[in-house]
Give the backbone structure.
Amino acid sequence: MHVRIIDTSILCNIINIPHMNQNHKEIIEELAVLQQDRQQTLILPLATIIETGNHIAHIADGNLRRNRAQIMAELIKRTVNDQAPWSYYGKEFEREELLEISSNVVQYAVMEIGIGDLSIVQVYKKYKDTALAIASIRIWSLDKHLQSYCEEMPSPRRRRDQ
């Protein structure tokens, strides 16, 4: 299994949010290819949903804002009903994970990286540590600082009963 954690930059392109959709065509094409590959698992974190919703709320054109919000609402419904090409990953963070995020807030803020991205990194780490049979994992992002989160796993973990 090859896992991709979906970042806000990708979802904004999928939904086609103005000024955040420079790679819309390429992302849609890549998503279509990924959907055909049964070895690919796409994961949608809560932070990606929230950040994308915030970007939609700031669209200046009211008609376009309403249209993109309707697309987002439908996307969330499809996700919840397992009809989307990705799975929702809404595991809440434990205290230790929030402490890890808090220990990086200042360093990342100085580099203009927000808590949303930090929580996506935390999802990456948590998923990598807990999921079985992963051949590779990465954050699917257009942001350079998140693209570096990409690993091939030496040997996929299996369940003990297999």
The first strand starts at residue 2 and ends at 6. The two ends are 16 Å apart (CA to CA). Helices lie at 8-15, 24-36, 46-57, 62-80, 95-110, 115-130, 144-147.
